[in-house]
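Reviewer 2 asked us to include a model.

Predict the structure of this chain.
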Amino acid sequence: MKIFKHTRFFLFTLLLLPGLLKAVPDSLVYSLDQEMEGVNISLNGTNLNFSLPKENYDYWFFTTKDSYRNALKDIADWDWSRVPCNVGSYEDSLFKGFGWFRLHYRVGKKLAGTTLMLRLNHFGASEIFNDGKFLASFGVASPKPEEEICINPGGEFFPVFVPDTLEHVLAVRYSNHKYAENDDKYNAVLAGFILKMFSKERMLEISQLAETQRYFFISISFFLIALAFVHMIIFCFERSRKFNLFHSFFVLSLGLVFLIPVINHIVEKPETSFKIYYYTNFLVPTLLFSALALLYNLFQRKLNKFFYISLAFYVATLIMAYVFDNISGIFYITLFFNVFIGATILSIKGIRQNFRGAKIVGIGVLGVTICMIISILGLIVLKDNGLVFSVIMLILGILSLPLSMSVYLAFDFAGANKTLKQQIVQIEDLSAKALQKEQEKKQILESQNQVLEEQVKHRTAEIAKQNAVLENQKKEITDSITYAKRIQQSILPAIEDFKAVIPKSFVLYMPKDIVSGDFYYLRPSGKNIFVAAADCTGHGVPGALMSMVAHEKLEEAVTQSQNPGEILSLLNKGVKRTLKQNSGDNSTRDGCDIILVGINENKLVYSGANRNLCIIRKNAKEVEEIKATKCAIGGLTPEDQVYSQQELKMNAGDCVYLYSDGYADQFGGDKEKKLTTRKFKELLLSVQELSMEDQGKYLKDFNISWRDELEQIDDILVIGIRF
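Predicted model (structure tokens):
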């Protein structure tokens, strides 16, 4: 019988054992016996509102084993780890990027049979269960980093029904593998999550309050950004007033400060949110320092040591915010008080020195001071209940400065308009006086103009008479020169006669003026045909006179000799004797450069005075240049000068060119430079496929095109002969 009793007790114990193993002590079951409005169930305790006492974190259980059975209500979790505050903040933390969290709770009679609203905040990924029933998920939680997708839930609410007062279990499958990386990059150690439970009524109040807050922040930020844009435009049109530039930076920074929380509310990627808040570290110092620079520009004008100290703290704060996040708060506080003290001193100084609008700006600075004091007192006296009040006062304090600045600008603008109106009245008075004086001057000038008009008419008549005389004289001179041209042309062989003697030839003869200092020569003598191209000193009438002398002496020399070199020697003697160039210092130095060739069938004898002969053999790719004697005809050349000559054998198709320097020296082209002898030779090579007549036409057209609207600077003479 005893054996039976012991056996029955043993079997009963076996039946209860699973329940005993799964049971959690009542001390570890969180009791919710009151209204749930604002009660936090949090892992990291970073939220300041309605947080549970730190010891209540002991209610959470944690494991790294991944199984969806962990969501069930009746599994054994008595051997799970207890979670410390701020999961992921310490290197020895149990959380290494993934895990399951469980909270045992029961509600009182008031909450039994109601639907509570849960809200989860985190920067990882999660799945939430109540008594094994799936409630919601945010992102993709996974023990594998490559499969994880982290998002920010953005304060989204989701419901959970609590049917009775019995024990229930909230389970969270959570992962955040990047929290250490985010700590290194952005000093953002947020590995855990914040779980809040609200009644439906409280949820509606919170949602409406959050919506109102967002619209309020958006309205303020857009107003400030628009204000910054307006002042930047004003500065662009009036650069002398740098006040508008600093005010634009100040209100733009302030507008972005209000806009950033709104942007972060809709940003899902945690890394983007971290970046935005990270760069806000640089925005706040800029906001503070631009306010100080603004006041200095208004009241101080000249920068002092205090400003440069503030500038040093501003730069140091930016560096600390970038490099040493953990200690940058010291610089933030120092910069803030530095700017605050500087703003106060500048405002007082401006009021004492009676700066325009200093009282208005001073009221804004005073508003910042009063609102900050009230905000701090609200936190001290009301504690957590005064947080909202303190934040509102802080916002009002921050806004009081840009609002006072805007009022100052309106005041300044109104004052400027008033001054402008006064100046306009003064200008009108001055204009009336100036107009009266102008009328008096006009009357004086009209009387003087009558006298001047008579003088001008008389003078114009005299000038007209003088012009008539000058025109008559010009006509007589031009007629004389034109007649001289007929005389000069009479000594030159006609082009038709030239081609009759040498059919395959052309003569390009383009005088600069009516008469020319260049002349060409053709004379059959015995078995030879003598051809010459001469360039006498000068151009126009002096050059023409010189060409007449040289032509006459060349005729005499050809009758005395058949050798081109000897002919040039005789020409040199004749010119020097005619111009009496051996009589002393008063003798002229005029003369000429000349090319002379004697042609006898396929033989050519050449002699030159300062002018080289160009030969282009048939099918040749370059110009053959025969050098002349480096002495001119006449001038400083000795009377007994000997000129060398060269005998050349010519073949059918070979071409020879005699020319003066006028063609190569002509300015023109895109850069209005000389053509040069080198380019002239290249031009001769390029026309070898043309007939001699077409070569002459091409060279003439090229010269006209080359100089375009530029003046011809010298006489031009080119003779081409093909054998």
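The longest helix spans residues 387-491. Residues 1-23, 34-57, 88-92 have pLDDT under 50 and may be disordered. We have added this to the supplementary material.
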